């Protein structure tokens, strides 16, 4: 065997396990839900082969879930962005380098800790025996915090803030400080330096964070379930209902395909916008 | 002012976590009646057999999926370093999808595909099986491990690749100039330098799997993982017992993530 052929064989063997995994548990499942979305619901629930777009035509039946998701997810992502930017800016530009590692680690840690428990914490805080009970003590009875859109929004910001801070921090940290000095030397005020240099160069990081958070929010289930209490339901709630309760798999598959479609459109749009506004290359994830 | 804002954000991130831990030691049932220090809820949680069973399941699933992902992900990271640009682009797109596609979609897609697959494979096994009780494939440990392994493999590949990219080529070249075989070079030069990244990947993959609710919710079959158990108890009503489990889960994942961070941040050994 020639050494080039041997090298290729070794490379293929190294990639094979991951390829099998990707094929069996990503590509195949995705093909399966596309096929299912073109089928019909079997009388007893589940799937019956067919070739129809009826499930897609039926999507408006779950318009409320789409509407809630498509309002609260972008609103949540925007709120994350507005809160995350000053934090990322502070960490990347203002903080002493020797303290930076620790402070960034403190942002990473909550991201990797159980979203379920962290959301539960807010259930505990906002629930009837939490803040409202204390408000009652100071003479403000009947304040309702949990099971409202506001509670869901709060949970979203709380859960996804770290994921927004990190990419913005990375893009700001890579920013060449000499550009800021040059801008100041050329007589720009700090204000205009920020808008024409800093903000612009951190745009790829902002777009990465925003699209990542938005896409993950589109599939969010725990936060609307625990903090929205069945009143604020997302596409994720519709999917759980259709797959695990009413067992209408073809319709559920159509919703899932629609969700992925929306996510892909958003990602492409985000890439276009980033490319147009900054001309810079994409910032890596994490 | 900015400083105050940043401090407030850190408070926002950590206060709810701190409250869960604090109230897990509350003798009373509710936040509004803090009646003293007690570890009774921990005792209750630890003597709950359903809970312990769910915990065992979660540990089995998380360890296995993280171990498999570490092997596949490391191999893929090394393979991608040697592969052509087209192969790399395909893998990049698929790994990207594995990370970005929301868990709820991964969960249902895996459920749908596996149920179909079992529908084909099980009759085939039954037809070929010589004995009376042919084995039946079904949802359970295997499907949770497989579905978690997808995200985790993508994650480990990303982390190990970043480390490989930062690796100096000079030592690898020196090694082969000195007639070391590629395998020897890998074992004695490359592996020691990427090992912290592999370990960090393992820990993060473990944490992901241990904390995941939504993927397991769809593909667990009759099994229950710890987050599934906790979710079901929360739906039945907030109890201090959940605070105790929650506090334990939070502390465990925080320790794992700190360990992963330390491994990733560790300076490269000073060049000899």
Automatic annotation (TrEMBL), chain A:
It comes from the Bacteria. It holds the Pfam family BPD_transp_1. InterPro entries: MetI-like, MetI-like_sf. Its main location: membrane. It is found in: Cell membrane. GO terms for biological process: transmembrane transport. Gene3D superfamilies: MetI-like (1.10.3720.10). The keyword Cell membrane applies. It is a multi-pass membrane protein. The keyword Membrane applies. Residues 66-270 form the ABC transmembrane type-1 domain. The chain crosses the membrane at residues 70-92, 101-125, 145-170, 209-229, 249-270. One of its GO terms (cellular component) is plasma membrane. Keywords: Cell membrane, Membrane, Transmembrane, Transmembrane helix, Transport. Belongs to the binding-protein-dependent transport system permease family. CysTW subfamily. PANTHER family: INNER MEMBRANE ABC TRANSPORTER PERMEASE PROTEIN YDCU-RELATED, INNER MEMBRANE ABC TRANSPORTER PERMEASE PROTEIN YDCU-RELATED-RELATED. This is Spermidine/putrescine transport system permease protein. It comes from Ancylobacter rudongensis.
TrEMBL record, chain B:
The keyword Transmembrane applies. One of its GO terms (cellular component) is plasma membrane. It comes from the Bacteria. Residues 55-260 form the ABC transmembrane type-1 domain. Gene3D superfamilies: MetI-like. It is found in: Cell membrane. CDD domains: TM_PBP2. This is Spermidine/putrescine transport system permease protein. It is a multi-pass membrane protein. The keyword Endoplasmic reticulum does not apply. The chain crosses the membrane at residues 55-81, 93-119, 139-160, 197-222, 242-264. Keywords: Cell membrane, Membrane, Transmembrane, Transmembrane helix, Transport. GO terms for biological process: transmembrane transport. Its main location: membrane. Belongs to the binding-protein-dependent transport system permease family. CysTW subfamily.
């Amino acid at each position: 065997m020639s050494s080039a052929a041997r090298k290729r064989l070794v490379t293929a063997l190294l990639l094979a396990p991951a390829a099998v995994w990707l094929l069996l548990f990503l590509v195949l499942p995705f093909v399966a839900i596309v096929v299912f979305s073109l089928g019909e619901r079997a009388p007893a629930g589940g799937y019956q082969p067919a070739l129809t777009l009826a499930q897609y035509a039926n999507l408006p039946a779950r318009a409320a879930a789409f509407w809630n998701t498509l309002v609260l997810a972008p609103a949540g992502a925007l709120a994350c962005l507005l809160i995350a930017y000053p934090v990322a800016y502070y960490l990347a530009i203002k903080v002493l380098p020797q303290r930076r590692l620790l402070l960034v680690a403190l942002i990473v840690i909550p991201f990797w800790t159980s979203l379920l428990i962290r959301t539960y914490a807010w259930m505990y805080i906002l629930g009837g025996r939490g803040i409202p009970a204390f408000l009652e003590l100071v003479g403000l009875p009947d304040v309702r915090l949990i099971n409202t859109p506001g509670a869901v929004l709060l949970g979203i910001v709380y859960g996804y803030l770290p994921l927004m801070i990190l990419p913005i921090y990375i893009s700001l940290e890579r920013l060449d400080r000499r550009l800021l000095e040059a801008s100041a030397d050329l007589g720009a005020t700090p204000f205009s330096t920020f808008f024409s240099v800093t903000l612009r160069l951190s745009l790829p990081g902002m777009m990465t964070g925003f699209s990542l958070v938005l896409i993950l929010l589109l599939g969010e289930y725990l936060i609307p379930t625990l903090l929205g209490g069945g009143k604020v339901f997302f596409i994720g709630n519709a999917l759980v209902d259709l797959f695990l309760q009413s067992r209408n798999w073809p319709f559920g598959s159509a919703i899932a395909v629609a969700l992925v479609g929306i996510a892909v459109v958003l990602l492409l749009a985000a890439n276009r916008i980033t490319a147009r506004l900054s001309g810079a290359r994409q910032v890596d994830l994490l | 002012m900015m400083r105050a804002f940043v401090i407030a954000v850190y408070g926002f991130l950590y206060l709810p976590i701190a409250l869960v831990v604090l109230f897990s030691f509350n003798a009373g049932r509710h936040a509004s009646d803090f009646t003293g220090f007690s570890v009774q809820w921990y005792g209750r949680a630890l003597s709950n057999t359903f809970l312990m069973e769910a915990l065992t399941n979660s540990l089995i699933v998380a360890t296995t999926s993280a171990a498999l992902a570490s092997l596949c992900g490391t191999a893929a990271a090394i393979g991608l370093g040697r592969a052509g640009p087209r192969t790399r682009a395909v893998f990049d797109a698929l790994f990207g999808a594995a990370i970005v596609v929301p868990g709820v979609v991964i969960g249902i897609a895996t459920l749908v595909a596996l149920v179909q697959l079992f529908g084909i494979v099980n009759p085939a096994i039954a037809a070929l099986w010589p004995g009376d009780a042919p084995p039946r494939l079904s949802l359970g440990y295997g499907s949770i491990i497989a579905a978690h392994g997808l995200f985790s493999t993508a994650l480990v590949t990303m982390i190990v690749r970043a480390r490989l990219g930062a690796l100096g080529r000079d030592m690898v070249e020196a090694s082969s100039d000195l007639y070391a075989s590629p395998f020897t070079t890998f074992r004695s030069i490359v592996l020691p330098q990427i090992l912290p990244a592999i370990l960090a990947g393992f820990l993060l993959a473990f944490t992901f799997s241990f904390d995941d609710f939504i993927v397991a919710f769809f593909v667990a079959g009759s099994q229950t993982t710890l987050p599934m158990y906790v979710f079901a108890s929360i739906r039945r009503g907030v109890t201090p017992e959940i605070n105790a489990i929650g506090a334990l889960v939070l502390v465990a994942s925080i320790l794992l993530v700190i360990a992963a961070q330390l491994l990733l941040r560790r300076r490269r050994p000073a060049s000899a």
